[in-house]
Amino acid sequence: MTTYIRLLVLVSCLFTLWACSPSADEPMKSSLIGMKAVIQAHGNDLLLEVKDITENTVISEITNWHGDFVSRRHYYKGLYPVAGKEGATQWELDFDVNRIDVLFPITIGNKTSFSGTMLDITNAKSYKFWSKIEVKEKKPFLLPSGAQTVYILKIKTEYDINGRLKKTMETVYFAPDLMLNLKGVMHEAAAQRYWRVISIIPPSEADIIPTRRPRSATVMI
């Protein structure tokens, strides 16, 4: 269960107002659909593709270099994972997403906290969680296509797993212009997980995939 515990759920009823009132950034969002990102995670080469952007949620899918499915994630405003699937495991988070909205526009010093329920859909179980997020820093993030402005956010989360408290700390590098996290480092007990986007492939060049040596893809990000 701990592999999938990072945060979860689409509460679509809260997005009705956005759906009924198209915003000025809708063309920008549409232009990101089909974008791909090459990711390195613990020595694994993975490929992320933005499949859809709907109701302020970016839906992305990760495959390995053989094209095999690894995971599918729903990120609220591209920043915070609220639902996902890894293999046969499916999960969601049930919480007030308005608590994420207070971070936007992303500004150093912005912070929020909230609690909710993690839904393990596959096993028909649920767990309570508490999370705190703070925007700590702004810096350039270098990619072959040029520098992207990213904001570094710290995410602290606690989970009540059958009466046992589990804590995680994650640092993410969020690029607002791409609605995408470009780097993540998670600490959990004595373990650490790390991943990084090493190149971005725009939708206009989606068929141009760099040649890389296939590796295993057992790491879910």
Structure commentary:
The protein has one domain: YmcC-like (YmcC-like fold, Beta Barrel), CATH 2.40.360. The chain has a twelve-stranded antiparallel beta barrel with strand order 1-2-3-4-5-6-7-8-9-10-11-12. The longest helix has 7 residues, at 26-32. The protein has 221 residues and is mainly beta. 7% of the residues lie in helices and 56% in strands.
What's the topology here?
Elements: H1 16-20, H2 26-32, E1 36-41, E2 44-54, E3 57-64, E4 69-76, E5 80-86, E6 89-94, H3 98-101, E7 111-120, E8 125-143, E9 146-161, E10 164-175, E11 180-188, E12 191-201
Antiparallel strand pairs: 1-2, 1-12, 2-3, 3-4, 4-5, 5-6, 6-7, 7-8, 8-9, 9-10, 10-11, 11-12
In a nutshell, what does this entry contain?
By secondary structure, this protein is mainly β. The protein is 7% helix and 56% strand.
> Rough shape?
globular
Total number of strands: 12
Beginning-to-end CA distance, first to last residue: 14 Å
Give helix % range: under 10%
The overall pLDDT average reads 85
Order of helices and strands: HHEEEEEEHEEEEEE
The second-level CATH architecture is Beta Barrel
Q: What value does the Rg take, in angstroms?
A: 17 Å
CATH class (first level) name: Mainly Beta
List descriptors.
disordered C terminus; 3 helices; mainly beta; 12-stranded antiparallel barrel; disordered N terminus; 221 residues
